[in-house]
Known about the structure:
The chain is an alpha/beta fold. It contains eleven helices and 20 strands. The chain folds into two domains: 3-91 and 203-428, Alpha-Beta Complex (Adenylosuccinate Synthetase, Chain A, domain 3), CATH 3.90.170.10; 105-199, Adenylosuccinate Synthetase, subunit A, domain 2. The chain is globular and about 65 Å long.
Amino acid sequence: MTLQVIVGAQWGDEGKGRIVDWFAEQADFSARYNGGDNAGHTVTVGSRIFKLHLIPSGIIHPQIIAILGNGMVVNPTTLFEEMDFLRQAGISVTPERLRISYAAHLITPAHQALDRALEAQRGKGSIGTTGRGIGPAYTDKATRRGVRVGDSLAPDFCDRIEDHITESNRTLRMLGAPELDSAEICDQYRKVAARLEPYIADTSLELHTALQAGKKVLVEGAQGTLLDIDLGTYPFVTSSNTTAPGALTGLGLGLDAARDARVIGVVKAFQTRVGSGPFPTEVFDDLALRLRGTGEHPWDEYGTTTGRPRRVGWLDGVLLRYATRINGIHELAVTKLDILSGLESIKLCRAYRGQDGEFTDLPFGPADPRRYEPVFEELPGWSENVSDVREWNDLPKAAQTYLDRLASLAGVPVRLVSVGAEREQIVPHS
Ligand code: IMP
């Protein structure tokens, strides 16, 4: 098996970074296929915490070649900051180790300004975006006005940036937002072009060649299944295909690459979401505080990118089952089991009830506008601290029962469980 896809099975923030880190030890390439610096992937190695927004977290392993695929939108300012941060941490970031698709799109300050202005205009109906310019960059891509990474190689690159700023200023004016100085941005992007050049590549061809040679490619999904533009809780979604099949188009791979691919769905032991949109199993008050944490620990439920407190709730087995189906998940990695220790009982949503009956598959997917109530079952909790457990059989029986039930709702097995933020705090299923 040469292609492994790590995908978030919820609304993002499932802890994909640390799971990627675990699998990356055995991989040759680590590739991202969607989104941009709206993502925040955290890997903890001893006292060092790596928070990466754009560069695949596999790069921390010295043998890895990191790929930014054509499906991504790349903010060069974040990219350069991240490259500098990694270098300062002693990680080699060279054109041999970091490859960026010529067909990925560039994010500019105009996209960020438009993101903010559009959110302000939406008022109460705002999506709660990360403000990183993701939606406007993908809008420009879809309307064929986008500026691609490869365009930075063209002699008329600055003219294209200027046209893009002029066009964006027109919209900003209509939205009543301040306009941008195109000369300043052109100057900035001229420097960006020079710095990007050595890293630009045909990453589709490179990955194809690597797979043909039997190399192991670890694919790192950003955000989560329920934020997918087509299959998520639309319109409260991001603007890309976050689901595993998007890895093919987002990396320029053909269907043959999927033949013996393995899809690992990362699912938090409870549910979280940041931003607006439906969240049927959401909890509030003391229980919410208990699951979210106060913000004093790096693993508490506050956004890696925005610092916003995350909404929290019980695990939604119906949406997990949906995620398993549309991603083709083979096995699950469950994260943050340790956070549930000490709860007297734990609820799990096993179905939805509406006027027309009870459903284990929502009739019109997660964005179904009709009203359904979650149907919960309640399992006993456990009091033991599990953060030092490394063997499946050492997990408390109640924790094993909870994981077994989660697996049976999803319809696929649990392969591993994380019980803390540290690299070695992983319990493989025996
Ligand atoms: P955007 O991707 O910035 O346009 O934001 C759209 C929605 O996706 C908002 O609800 C964001 O909070 C959410 N979102 C975007 N990226 C992430 C992520 O990496 N983790 C969790 N939520 C995200």
